[in-house]
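Sequence and structure are no longer studied apart. As an example, we show below a sequence and the tokens encoding its fold:
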Amino acid sequence: MAERPLVLVSVGTDHHPFERLMGWVERWLDARAGSVRCVVQHGTSRPPRGAECHDMLAHDELQTLMREADAVVCQGGPGGIMESRIAGRLPIVVPRTAALGEHVDDHQVRFTHVLATHGRIALAVTEPEFAAHLEKALADPEGYRAEHDESAAEATAVRFGELVRGVVARPRRGLLRR
């Protein structure tokens, strides 16, 4: 029996649930009837049925799975995107949105649109786009390979993402103290 293709899905380490992505994964897997092995790092989101689920994965385990995966799906933060590219995978990226309570603002939406414009990611904003990218990645894995090319622009984007994450994570205080 041939080995099933491996799809890795990671929501990253943000504390906001990402139920939209979990639903997309679940419905996509339901249509595959066990023909795909799917490992999901779901964080605070509900684990999708039909997948091997982990709330968190050790960094080295996540890197190994990224290298082994036929397709990698991640949220729109710079860490997961860059880790995927370093592992040689063009990530299928679903940005978190503030309107759905998936993040505090829409910086991932803006960030991922810039990366998609430059061919650094496969952007999936809708469920049909998500499913289409997964189907293409499994049909033609070489089309979803990436060479790690840490350009100055990418290094800057990663650093910027780290800075933004640090600012957003800080507790808010009033401008004036009494």
The chain is about 40% helix and 15% strand.
